[in-house]
Protein: Transcriptional activator, Rgg/GadR/MutR family domain protein
Organism: Ligilactobacillus ruminis ATCC 25644
Amino acid sequence: MKDFGEVFKVIRKSKGIKIIDIADEQISKSQISRFERGESTITLFKLTHMLDKICVTVEEFMYIVRNYKLDNFREQLITIRKYYMDNDIDSLKRLFHFESLDKNSILKRLRAYSIKSILYNITKSQVYKLNQTECDEISNYLFQIDNWGFFEIALLGNTLRNLPVELSFLLTKEILSKKNIYVNIPENKKNIIQLSINTLIICIEKQRYNDSHYLKHAISILLAHDNFFYEKLVFNYAVALLDISENNLSDKKNIEDTLLSMKIVDHNLHTIYKQHFDNFINNIKS
Protein backbone atom coordinates (compact mmCIF):
# COMPACT_ATOMS: atom_id res chain seq x y z
CA MET A 1 0.00 0.00 0.00
CA LYS A 2 1.33 3.41 -0.97
CA ASP A 3 1.80 6.34 1.40
CA PHE A 4 -1.33 8.51 1.59
CA GLY A 5 0.57 11.79 1.41
CA GLU A 6 2.67 10.67 -1.53
CA VAL A 7 -0.42 9.58 -3.48
CA PHE A 8 -2.20 12.84 -2.69
CA LYS A 9 0.80 14.83 -3.96
CA VAL A 10 0.96 12.85 -7.22
CA ILE A 11 -2.76 13.37 -7.89
CA ARG A 12 -2.61 17.06 -6.94
CA LYS A 13 0.36 17.80 -9.20
CA SER A 14 -1.11 15.78 -12.09
CA LYS A 15 -4.13 18.08 -11.96
CA GLY A 16 -1.96 21.19 -11.90
CA ILE A 17 -3.25 22.22 -8.48
CA LYS A 18 -0.98 24.11 -6.07
CA ILE A 19 -0.92 23.65 -2.30
CA ILE A 20 -2.00 27.26 -1.89
CA ASP A 21 -5.18 26.42 -3.84
CA ILE A 22 -6.10 23.77 -1.24
CA ALA A 23 -5.06 25.48 1.99
CA ASP A 24 -7.80 27.27 3.92
CA GLU A 25 -9.07 27.70 7.47
CA GLN A 26 -9.48 23.90 7.76
CA ILE A 27 -5.88 22.98 6.88
CA SER A 28 -2.74 25.07 6.45
CA LYS A 29 -0.09 25.01 3.71
CA SER A 30 2.49 23.65 6.16
CA GLN A 31 0.18 20.82 7.26
CA ILE A 32 -0.38 19.80 3.64
CA SER A 33 3.36 19.92 2.89
CA ARG A 34 4.25 17.78 5.92
CA PHE A 35 1.48 15.31 5.03
CA GLU A 36 2.73 14.98 1.44
CA ARG A 37 6.31 14.41 2.64
CA GLY A 38 5.15 11.71 5.05
CA GLU A 39 6.27 13.71 8.09
CA SER A 40 2.82 13.87 9.71
CA THR A 41 -0.66 12.44 9.49
CA ILE A 42 -3.99 14.24 9.21
CA THR A 43 -7.51 13.45 10.35
CA LEU A 44 -10.00 11.71 8.08
CA PHE A 45 -12.09 14.88 8.06
CA LYS A 46 -9.16 16.93 6.74
CA LEU A 47 -8.27 14.27 4.15
CA THR A 48 -11.82 14.16 2.75
CA HIS A 49 -11.87 17.97 2.77
CA MET A 50 -8.63 18.04 0.74
CA LEU A 51 -9.91 15.38 -1.66
CA ASP A 52 -13.03 17.48 -2.26
CA LYS A 53 -10.73 20.36 -3.20
CA ILE A 54 -9.05 18.28 -5.94
CA CYS A 55 -12.33 16.59 -7.06
CA VAL A 56 -11.36 13.04 -6.09
CA THR A 57 -13.64 10.69 -4.15
CA VAL A 58 -12.41 8.73 -1.14
CA GLU A 59 -13.08 5.50 -3.04
CA GLU A 60 -10.98 6.65 -6.01
CA PHE A 61 -8.18 7.77 -3.69
CA MET A 62 -8.10 4.45 -1.81
CA TYR A 63 -8.13 2.53 -5.09
CA ILE A 64 -4.92 4.32 -6.10
CA VAL A 65 -3.40 3.89 -2.61
CA ARG A 66 -3.97 0.12 -2.92
CA ASN A 67 -2.08 0.08 -6.24
CA TYR A 68 -5.30 0.01 -8.27
CA LYS A 69 -6.71 -3.01 -6.46
CA LEU A 70 -10.02 -3.45 -4.67
CA ASP A 71 -10.09 -3.87 -0.90
CA ASN A 72 -9.56 -7.40 0.43
CA PHE A 73 -13.24 -8.08 1.11
CA ARG A 74 -14.37 -7.06 -2.37
CA GLU A 75 -11.54 -9.08 -3.91
CA GLN A 76 -12.69 -12.06 -1.87
CA LEU A 77 -16.29 -11.63 -3.04
CA ILE A 78 -15.13 -11.65 -6.68
CA THR A 79 -13.17 -14.83 -5.97
CA ILE A 80 -16.16 -16.45 -4.24
CA ARG A 81 -18.44 -15.51 -7.14
CA LYS A 82 -16.00 -17.12 -9.61
CA TYR A 83 -15.79 -20.30 -7.51
CA TYR A 84 -19.60 -20.37 -7.30
CA MET A 85 -20.11 -19.90 -11.05
CA ASP A 86 -17.45 -22.55 -11.79
CA ASN A 87 -18.99 -24.88 -9.18
CA ASP A 88 -15.50 -25.08 -7.65
CA ILE A 89 -16.51 -26.64 -4.34
CA ASP A 90 -12.97 -27.60 -3.29
CA SER A 91 -11.74 -23.99 -3.52
CA LEU A 92 -14.77 -22.77 -1.56
CA LYS A 93 -14.07 -25.38 1.12
CA ARG A 94 -10.45 -24.22 1.42
CA LEU A 95 -11.58 -20.60 1.71
CA PHE A 96 -14.16 -21.57 4.32
CA HIS A 97 -11.50 -23.42 6.33
CA PHE A 98 -9.18 -20.40 6.18
CA GLU A 99 -11.87 -17.96 7.34
CA SER A 100 -12.90 -20.36 10.14
CA LEU A 101 -9.45 -20.39 11.75
CA ASP A 102 -9.87 -17.14 13.70
CA LYS A 103 -12.88 -17.77 15.95
CA ASN A 104 -12.18 -14.75 18.17
CA SER A 105 -13.03 -12.20 15.47
CA ILE A 106 -16.75 -11.72 14.88
CA LEU A 107 -16.13 -10.34 11.38
CA LYS A 108 -14.04 -13.40 10.50
CA ARG A 109 -16.80 -15.66 11.81
CA LEU A 110 -19.42 -13.80 9.79
CA ARG A 111 -17.30 -14.10 6.65
CA ALA A 112 -17.00 -17.83 7.32
CA TYR A 113 -20.79 -18.10 7.71
CA SER A 114 -21.21 -16.41 4.31
CA ILE A 115 -19.00 -18.98 2.60
CA LYS A 116 -20.57 -21.83 4.56
CA SER A 117 -24.00 -20.69 3.38
CA ILE A 118 -22.86 -20.60 -0.25
CA LEU A 119 -21.47 -24.13 0.13
CA TYR A 120 -24.83 -25.26 1.48
CA ASN A 121 -26.65 -23.66 -1.47
CA ILE A 122 -24.43 -25.62 -3.87
CA THR A 123 -24.06 -28.96 -2.10
CA LYS A 124 -27.26 -29.09 0.02
CA SER A 125 -25.10 -30.92 2.55
CA GLN A 126 -26.27 -30.55 6.16
CA VAL A 127 -22.62 -30.11 7.13
CA TYR A 128 -22.80 -26.58 5.69
CA LYS A 129 -26.27 -25.65 6.92
CA LEU A 130 -26.13 -22.75 9.36
CA ASN A 131 -27.09 -23.83 12.87
CA GLN A 132 -29.29 -21.80 15.21
CA THR A 133 -26.34 -20.24 17.03
CA GLU A 134 -24.84 -19.04 13.74
CA CYS A 135 -28.18 -17.66 12.53
CA ASP A 136 -28.62 -15.85 15.84
CA GLU A 137 -25.14 -14.34 15.61
CA ILE A 138 -25.84 -13.05 12.09
CA SER A 139 -29.21 -11.54 13.05
CA ASN A 140 -27.94 -10.03 16.31
CA TYR A 141 -25.03 -8.42 14.48
CA LEU A 142 -27.18 -6.99 11.69
CA PHE A 143 -29.97 -5.70 13.93
CA GLN A 144 -27.51 -3.83 16.15
CA ILE A 145 -25.79 -2.07 13.22
CA ASP A 146 -27.26 1.35 12.50
CA ASN A 147 -25.19 2.11 9.41
CA TRP A 148 -25.14 -0.91 7.15
CA GLY A 149 -22.33 -0.87 4.60
CA PHE A 150 -21.16 -3.08 1.76
CA PHE A 151 -20.09 -5.83 4.20
CA GLU A 152 -23.49 -6.06 5.90
CA ILE A 153 -25.39 -6.06 2.59
CA ALA A 154 -23.14 -8.84 1.25
CA LEU A 155 -23.46 -10.84 4.49
CA LEU A 156 -27.26 -10.88 4.31
CA GLY A 157 -27.24 -11.52 0.57
CA ASN A 158 -24.97 -14.55 0.91
CA THR A 159 -26.82 -16.10 3.88
CA LEU A 160 -30.37 -15.25 2.80
CA ARG A 161 -31.45 -18.77 1.81
CA ASN A 162 -29.88 -20.29 4.90
CA LEU A 163 -31.83 -18.15 7.36
CA PRO A 164 -35.44 -18.78 8.46
CA VAL A 165 -37.74 -17.04 5.97
CA GLU A 166 -39.26 -14.85 8.70
CA LEU A 167 -35.80 -13.60 9.64
CA SER A 168 -34.80 -13.06 5.99
CA PHE A 169 -37.88 -10.89 5.48
CA LEU A 170 -37.39 -8.88 8.69
CA LEU A 171 -33.73 -8.19 7.91
CA THR A 172 -34.59 -7.18 4.34
CA LYS A 173 -37.32 -4.90 5.67
CA GLU A 174 -34.78 -3.46 8.11
CA ILE A 175 -32.28 -2.62 5.39
CA LEU A 176 -34.96 -1.11 3.15
CA SER A 177 -35.80 1.30 5.97
CA LYS A 178 -32.19 2.58 6.09
CA LYS A 179 -32.49 4.78 3.01
CA ASN A 180 -29.50 6.91 3.98
CA ILE A 181 -27.11 4.03 3.19
CA TYR A 182 -28.22 3.52 -0.39
CA VAL A 183 -30.26 6.40 -1.83
CA ASN A 184 -27.17 8.26 -3.08
CA ILE A 185 -24.79 5.29 -3.37
CA PRO A 186 -25.58 3.46 -6.65
CA GLU A 187 -23.59 0.32 -5.80
CA ASN A 188 -25.34 -0.13 -2.46
CA LYS A 189 -28.72 0.60 -4.02
CA LYS A 190 -28.16 -1.99 -6.74
CA ASN A 191 -27.06 -4.62 -4.21
CA ILE A 192 -30.06 -3.91 -1.97
CA ILE A 193 -32.43 -4.23 -4.93
CA GLN A 194 -30.88 -7.60 -5.83
CA LEU A 195 -31.11 -8.75 -2.21
CA SER A 196 -34.74 -7.62 -1.92
CA ILE A 197 -35.72 -9.42 -5.14
CA ASN A 198 -34.13 -12.62 -3.82
CA THR A 199 -36.09 -12.25 -0.57
CA LEU A 200 -39.26 -11.65 -2.61
CA ILE A 201 -38.71 -14.90 -4.52
CA ILE A 202 -38.11 -16.79 -1.25
CA CYS A 203 -41.34 -15.36 0.20
CA ILE A 204 -43.25 -16.43 -2.93
CA GLU A 205 -41.81 -19.94 -2.65
CA LYS A 206 -43.00 -20.10 0.97
CA GLN A 207 -46.41 -18.60 0.01
CA ARG A 208 -45.94 -15.62 2.31
CA TYR A 209 -48.06 -13.35 0.15
CA ASN A 210 -48.41 -10.36 2.50
CA ASP A 211 -44.63 -10.17 2.79
CA SER A 212 -44.33 -10.67 -0.97
CA HIS A 213 -46.59 -7.72 -1.74
CA TYR A 214 -44.74 -5.52 0.75
CA LEU A 215 -41.45 -6.27 -1.03
CA LYS A 216 -43.00 -5.96 -4.49
CA HIS A 217 -44.16 -2.43 -3.65
CA ALA A 218 -40.83 -1.42 -2.06
CA ILE A 219 -38.77 -2.76 -4.98
CA SER A 220 -40.99 -1.12 -7.61
CA ILE A 221 -40.31 2.25 -5.95
CA LEU A 222 -36.55 1.62 -5.94
CA LEU A 223 -36.57 0.65 -9.62
CA ALA A 224 -38.82 3.49 -10.76
CA HIS A 225 -36.14 6.03 -11.68
CA ASP A 226 -33.03 3.92 -12.29
CA ASN A 227 -31.71 1.98 -15.26
CA PHE A 228 -30.99 -1.31 -13.50
CA PHE A 229 -31.89 -3.39 -16.54
CA TYR A 230 -30.92 -6.84 -15.23
CA GLU A 231 -32.62 -6.18 -11.90
CA LYS A 232 -35.81 -5.09 -13.67
CA LEU A 233 -35.81 -8.32 -15.68
CA VAL A 234 -35.49 -10.46 -12.55
CA PHE A 235 -38.10 -8.34 -10.77
CA ASN A 236 -40.52 -8.88 -13.67
CA TYR A 237 -39.86 -12.61 -13.32
CA ALA A 238 -40.63 -12.46 -9.58
CA VAL A 239 -43.85 -10.48 -10.15
CA ALA A 240 -45.03 -13.00 -12.76
CA LEU A 241 -44.12 -15.83 -10.39
CA LEU A 242 -46.16 -14.20 -7.62
CA ASP A 243 -49.14 -13.87 -9.96
CA ILE A 244 -48.99 -17.56 -10.89
CA SER A 245 -48.48 -18.72 -7.31
CA GLU A 246 -51.06 -16.51 -5.63
CA ASN A 247 -53.81 -16.90 -8.23
CA ASN A 248 -53.00 -20.47 -9.27
CA LEU A 249 -52.84 -19.39 -12.90
CA SER A 250 -52.20 -21.84 -15.70
CA ASP A 251 -51.41 -18.95 -18.08
CA LYS A 252 -47.61 -18.64 -18.04
CA LYS A 253 -47.31 -16.08 -20.85
CA ASN A 254 -45.88 -13.26 -18.70
CA ILE A 255 -43.19 -15.40 -17.17
CA GLU A 256 -42.36 -17.06 -20.49
CA ASP A 257 -41.98 -13.61 -22.09
CA THR A 258 -39.64 -12.57 -19.28
CA LEU A 259 -37.58 -15.74 -19.64
CA LEU A 260 -37.33 -15.11 -23.39
CA SER A 261 -36.04 -11.58 -22.72
CA MET A 262 -33.46 -13.06 -20.33
CA LYS A 263 -32.35 -15.52 -23.00
CA ILE A 264 -31.79 -12.70 -25.48
CA VAL A 265 -29.86 -10.58 -22.98
CA ASP A 266 -27.88 -13.16 -20.99
CA HIS A 267 -27.95 -16.92 -21.57
CA ASN A 268 -26.68 -17.69 -18.03
CA LEU A 269 -29.40 -15.52 -16.49
CA HIS A 270 -32.00 -17.38 -18.54
CA THR A 271 -30.60 -20.77 -17.52
CA ILE A 272 -30.71 -19.90 -13.81
CA TYR A 273 -34.30 -18.65 -13.80
CA LYS A 274 -35.63 -21.24 -16.26
CA GLN A 275 -34.35 -23.92 -13.91
CA HIS A 276 -35.83 -22.07 -10.95
CA PHE A 277 -39.23 -21.85 -12.66
CA ASP A 278 -39.20 -25.54 -13.61
CA ASN A 279 -38.37 -26.48 -10.00
CA PHE A 280 -41.06 -24.11 -8.73
CA ILE A 281 -43.74 -25.70 -10.95
CA ASN A 282 -42.62 -29.22 -10.00
CA ASN A 283 -42.86 -28.34 -6.30
CA ILE A 284 -46.40 -27.03 -6.80
CA LYS A 285 -47.44 -30.22 -8.61
CA SER A 286 -45.93 -32.42 -5.91
In short: The first helix runs from residue 4 to 14. The two ends are 57 Å apart (CA to CA). The CA atoms of residues 99 and 112 lie 5 Å apart. The chain has two domains: 2-64, 129-283.
